[in-house]
Recover the amino acids of this structure.
């Protein structure tokens, strides 16, 4: 599946708070339905490298949910304002235009594709990284893939998606400040689950901050459990042109995360380092 | 139809080397890329004699109206390029310009000879922003080095040799004149402007390499001035580039005397930017020029 060639203008449907984050939706009249794990390059049509000096480059944002709409498809994005680009996206108003390129990158595979003997999936999300797992969880539910969801957040302010994107499913939670669920890391929950499980029967799917992903990768590698990680890297273009999103491979060379990822198998990366 | 060094082109907009990977873009966008190819000629990423992995991340950093990059020329090396990439690039519907770099005259000669032998290649761009291993001097920063390199390469190919000029010199026109005397057919400018950024959180250099090159609209006035200075000093045709994002930007470079205009960083924001710039340029040319006022004065 290829993306439409070029960027296209999409209209903002709604923009609402989701915990400490925001969810905004775009109406895409042209693009194909995205797969879980794929991302889009997004830039507001107005006040983006216009009056201001930054943001200049579009931002790579994973799609969190999609649904058929009257004249195309609806794309939902979960965002947290952490800089000039995401601040602008958080402030989008209904009816505004957003330049969209995508869907880009590869997608998560099914447990059977990742490991022919796999019986189910464990989804491990941290912070804003829960976004692509929402769409993945729904796809697995539609295919009757047994799926367990573990989500972790730093604190209440840095959390979101629970009351909407993950509202209809059972989720086990962790928070570093203990405001919800287990006090500690989501990887504590994963370690306990893998140790109490027939671990080889699960495939782990994860997205979140680099330290969390590295912990997930190491936990799975130690137990010989297949895992797929959705990584993040600084990315100017999203389609292989800028070579900015280099991620080290075990052989010392680099992959371009935009075209070789963003989903990688655990053994494809040497170590998940700071994005 | 514009002619550049004997190469017939559909319009005057090409890409800057290293800002478009047509092979990756075709994987992402499919054959729509070929049907609506954004550029009148395609300039490859720079290839080097041996494969290079490129620099460790962090490689890019957004800056006001632009970005700094330090990518480190990742490429498959000459043999890998000729065997794997060139056949795919030959499927593009436009003439192909191959960018090459080496750190010594013998290696540079080997690159130019090997690339020139391939009939898919219309012209060769020389990336001279590298040190000569023998003298330790950056070839593109030293008129004498540049002239000597061109004198060595000129007899090796009948194909046009385009010298990519660096802006990081006091007098780019002197380097252009030296390239002309050495036998260059054209120049292209500007390359990126040497630049640094610090990570505000740590105070350490933002890029792993410590510094990089600035591109985007932030450098456009610098590029325009260097283009004017070079064209005042040489009779060579020039590919002008540096922050070109719109048809009116391209029109400025053409008005300053550029034969072609290259789109670079804008490709990252808009995969069809070359097509858009060329279309806007055509529209502007057919209409009356819009009066432009500095600082909105009447």
């Amino acid at each position: 599946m290829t993306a439409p060639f070029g960027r296209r203008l999409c209209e903002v449907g709604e923009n609402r708070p989701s915990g400490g984050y925001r969810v905004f939706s775009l109406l895409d009249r042209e693009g194909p339905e995205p797969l879980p794990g794929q991302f889009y390059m997004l830039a507001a049509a107005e006040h983006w490298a216009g009056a201001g000096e930054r943001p200049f480059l579009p931002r790579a944002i994973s799609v969190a949910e999609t649904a058929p709409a009257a004249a195309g498809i609806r794309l939902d994005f979960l965002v947290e304002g952490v800089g000039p680009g995401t601040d602008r996206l958080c402030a989008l108003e209904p009816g505004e235009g957003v330049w969209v390129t995508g869907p880009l990158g590869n997608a998560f595979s099914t447990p059977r594709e990742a490991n022919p003997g796999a019986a189910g999936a464990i989804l491990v999300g941290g912070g804003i990284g829960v976004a692509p797992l929402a769409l993945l969880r729904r796809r697995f539910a539609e295919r009757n893939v047994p799926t367990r969801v573990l989500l972790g957040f730093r604190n209440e302010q840095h959390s979101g998606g629970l009351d909407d994107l993950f509202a209809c499913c059972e989720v086990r939670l962790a928070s570093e400040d203990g405001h919800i669920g287990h006090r500690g890391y989501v990887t504590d929950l994963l370690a306990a689950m893998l140790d109490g499980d027939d671990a080889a029967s699960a495939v782990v799917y994860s997205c979140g901050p680099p330290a969390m992903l590295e912990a997930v990768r190491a936990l799975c590698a130690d137990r010989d459990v297949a895992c797929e990680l959705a990584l993040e890297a600084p990315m100017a273009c999203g389609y292989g042109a800028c070579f900015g999103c280099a991620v080290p491979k075990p052989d010392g060379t680099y992959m371009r995360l935009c075209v070789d990822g963003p989903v990688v198998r655990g053994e494809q990366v040497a170590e998940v380092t700071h994005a | 139809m514009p002619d550049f060094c004997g190469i017939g082109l559909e319009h005057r907009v090409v890409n800057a080397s290293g800002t478009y990977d047509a092979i990756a873009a075709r994987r992402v966008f499919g054959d729509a890329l070929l049907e609506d190819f954004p550029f009148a000629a395609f300039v490859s990423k720079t290839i080097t004699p041996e494969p290079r992995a490129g620099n460790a991340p962090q490689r890019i950093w957004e800056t006001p109206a632009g970005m700094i990059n330090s990518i480190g020329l990742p490429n498959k090396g000459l043999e890998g390029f000729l065997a794997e990439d060139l056949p795919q690039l030959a499927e593009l519907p436009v003439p192909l310009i191959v960018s090459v770099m080496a750190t010594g005259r013998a290696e540079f000669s080997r690159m130019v000879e090997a690339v020139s032998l391939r009939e898919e290649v219309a012209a060769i761009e020389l990336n001279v922003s590298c040190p000569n291993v023998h003298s330790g001097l950056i070839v593109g920063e030293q008129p004498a080095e540049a002239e000597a390199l061109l004198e060595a390469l000129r007899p090796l190919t009948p194909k046009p040799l385009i010298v990519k000029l660096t802006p990081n010199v006091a007098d780019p026109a002197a380097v252009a004149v030296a390239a002309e005397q050495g036998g260059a057919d054209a120049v292209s400018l500007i390359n990126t402007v040497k630049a640094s950024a610090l990570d505000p959180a740590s105070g350490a250099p933002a890029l792993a390499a410590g510094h990089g090159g600035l591109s985007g609209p932030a450098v456009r006035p610098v590029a325009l001035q260097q283009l004017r200075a070079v064209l005042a000093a040489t009779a060579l045709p020039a590919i002008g580039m540096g922050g070109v994002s719109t048809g009116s930007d391209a029109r400025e470079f053409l008005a300053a005397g550029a034969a072609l205009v290259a789109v670079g960083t804008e490709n990252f924001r808009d995969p069809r930017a070359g097509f858009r710039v060329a279309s806007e340029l055509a529209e502007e040319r057919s209409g009356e020029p819009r009066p432009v006022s500095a600082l909105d004065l009447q």
In short: Chain A touches chain B through 36 residues (CB under 8 Å). The mean pLDDT of chain A is 94.
